[in-house]
Each structure stands twice: as C-alpha cells, then as structure tokens.
Design brief:
The protein is an alpha/beta fold. It has 6 helices and 13 strands. This is ATP-binding cassette domain-containing protein. Residues 223-241 have a biased composition (Low complexity).
C-alpha cells in the first residue's frame, strides 16, 4: 500500500491535520507511528484503514484490512459472540467459521465466559478484548491498531503482542500506535513520528543493528542449516554445534513453532528470557 501526497483536514477551511504525506507500507512489515496527543496519529491510521478518505492525494494498493479503533463503541445491540460472528461475516467468513473463530479468540483472551454477555454490560478490559478479537479473527492482510493495548491486562497484552508477531510472520502487515515506548520494542521494521502535519522517519532497534531495547528470548537449538526463520533473529554459534537465536519476546512463540515444525525439526536445547536484545555493535570486553 502507498500513500502519495496525502493530506487530511476536517471541513473545507479547517487546519491541515496531515499534509503531503508519502508512505510505503510493505507487505510483511511492522510499522510504528509516534507523536504527541493531537498530532494526527489516529487520523493517519484511519486513512491507512480506509475509514477516512484523504482530502488530497491518494492511497493505492490497500489490502484486506481490519482495524481496532482507539475507542470501541460498546453500546451496540449484540452479545460479545454475536458481535464477533457478525464482524466475521462482514470480513467475508461464511457458515460456521465466524462463530468458530470468534470462540477461539475469546478463549485465547480468557473471555469466553462472556460470550453471551451484551456488549454494554462488559467491563472496559473485556470490551477491549472483543475489539481486538474482531480484527484478529479475520486474519487480515493489513492490521491497523490504534492504542489497542490500552485497557488490556498484562496477560492479554502479551497475547496481542504474540498475535501481532504471528500476523507479520504469516506475511501480513501491522501498523500501530501505542503510548508505551517499550511496546514491541526491537521488533518494528520502521518507525515514523507525526509532527507538523507530516511524517519523520525515526531510528528503530531493528535498524540500529542490535540496539539494546526490550525483553528478548534466546533459543539454543540444533538443526538443518540455511533455515528461513520468523522474527528476524540474531544468530550466533552455540556449544556443541548448536545455534543461538535471539528475538524480541513477542516473536519467541512464533520462532519456536517454526523450529519445531521444520522438516526435519530442530532439537531445542534451551530457551532463556533476557532483559534486552544484545547490542551487536558494542565491543566485547576483553578477557582478563
């Protein structure tokens, strides 16, 4: 998808929220947008999702898209399961598939006990789980997340982190805004800051060749050479002919699944959480 000279303002004489924005959104990428409150981040995400149309410029090549808004409209005449099933049909699912996927995502987020609860009676946290589930069940080519982690408990935030990694690994693209600077730290392929109605590229840990940000997981495994593995892991020789793979924690489940389902499968020797991605550019201390 490409945004070419895109601008957006509300009203014929309103101020420009965004202007002359050029952006390429590649397939299989994770893109983060940052900016102060009111800078235009949500407007940019709505343009990416096709919720808003640009006032000037054009958006081309938009893939099949799902969107999690900053504010979920909970006062709708549905139960949680009814709403998710309905959105599944809107996304093109047929037969029993919408209800099946809806139930699976409610279970994954620990909210299946609220499947028959009216949306208006759900807590904020459970409402947010439903808001996220409606986008994920569609397995979209483009997933747009506007503060989607807000209101989720710690476990649910981790589940959403892993779901994002799964979408990217499957070839989908995810664009997101989140107030937590550590959110998916080290995993983003590109980061942009919305400022003065335009976009400014920012340095990312992925581009910094080993910037030390965010929790990581190191997997020590032995298997066939030349494997194409998800999560862009850093690699290093391990003991006894093994390989050490280090990825952001959000990608660890996906990496392990790829290793275990390879043909032939990798033999996993150890899985170790770490505080941060190793800095590959820093000099190693000399041995005493």
């Amino acid at each position: 998808m490409k945004l070419h000279k895109v601008g957006r303002r509300y009203g014929l004489r309103g101020p420009w929220v965004l202007r002359d924005v050029d952006l390429e959104v590649p397939r299989g990428a994770l893109l983060r947008f940052e900016g102060t409150n009111g800078s235009g981040k949500s407007t940019l995400l709505r343009l990416c999702a096709g919720i808003d149309a640009p006032s000037t410029g054009r958006v081309t090549g938009r893939p099949r898209t799902a969107y999690v808004p900053e504010r979920f409209p909970a006062a709708l005449p549905f139960t949680a399961l009814g709403y998710l099933s309905h959105l599944g049909r809107v996304h093109g699912l047929r037969g029993a598939e919408p209800a099946r996927r809806a139930t699976e995502w409610l279970e994954r987020f620990g909210a299946v006990g609220h499947a028959r609860t009216p949306l208006a009676e759900l807590s904020k946290g459970t409402s947010q789980k439903v808001a996220v589930a409606q986008a994920l069940l569609a397995e979209p080519e483009l997933l747009v997340l506007d503060e989607a982690w807000t209101g989720l408990d710690r476990t649910a935030r981790g589940i959403l982190d892993r779901a994002v990694a799964e979408r990217v690994t499957a070839g989908g693209t995810v664009v997101f805004v989140d107030h937590d600077p550590a959110r998916l730290a080290g995993a983003a392929d590109a980061c942009y800051r919305v400022v003065d109605a335009g976009l400014r590229p920012q340095e990312t840990a992925a581009r910094a060749a080993g910037a030390t940000t965010g929790p990581c997981v190191t997997v020590v495994a032995q298997g066939p050479p030349g494997a194409d593995l998800p999560g862009a892991p850093t690699t290093a020789p391990g003991p006894d002919g093994t390989t050490r793979f280090t990825v952001p924690a959000a990608h660890s489940d996906t990496l392990l699944h790829a290793l275990l389902t390879a043909r032939p499968p990798w033999h996993i020797h150890a899985v170790t959480p770490e505080e941060a991605r190793p800095d590959r550019t820093a000099p190693r201390p000399e041995s005493p």
